[in-house]
Amino acid sequence: MLEVAPGRYLPESNAILWYIAGGTPLAPEDRIDRAEALQWMFFEQHSLEPNIGAAWFWLTLIKGGRELQHHAIENWMERGYGALRVMETHLKHHDFCAADRYTIADIALYAYTHVAHECDFDLATFPAVRALLRRVAAQPGHIAMDESPAVAAFAE
């Protein structure tokens, strides 16, 4: 959640990205490039977050989450791998997801994809996805998402 003005909040991650990136090279101004970035950000919310994101939450942050969500894991894996295949197909021909350059679409897709291995997703057969993860991590100003005391406390 981001408070953008007194009493005004943005609770959704991609809306926050657009708000923060507005007016910078990370948020494409060209209509087609912007639409392409939005397409990938919608894809992230529809295909990655509810599958890889849910698996990561339950399998890495919640003690006993695997047992609590055993009925959902197969579905998360099937749909998560489907999303990774879509990304792989696109990234075989593009260095970045939208606008032929690094944008907030790459940041949005990086979030859950770079931790997918922590919740049983094997990225070995996705070389173009792994290459994107390396390119994003190599961007100037990139800060690794190391485990914080708050996350460790939540998992207990």
Note down, in words, how this protein is organized.
It is a single chain. This protein is mostly helical and 156 residues long. The model has no long low-confidence stretch (mean pLDDT 93). It has helices at 13-21, 31-61, 65-68, 70-91, 104-113, 127-137, 149-155; strands at 2-5, 8-10.
> Per the principal axes of the C-alpha atoms, what is the gross shape?
globular
The total count of helices amounts to: 7
Q: SSE order in H/E notation?
A: EEHHHHHHH
- Taking the alpha carbons of the first and last residues, their distance comes to 23 Å
Low-confidence stretches: none
Quote the average pLDDT: 93
Radius of gyration: 16 Å
What's the total number of strands?
2
| Largest sheet report | 2 strands, antiparallel
- Tell me roughly what share of residues is in helical segments: 55-70%
Percent of residues in beta strands?
under 5%
Describe this structure in a few short sentences:
60% of the residues lie in helices and 4% in strands.
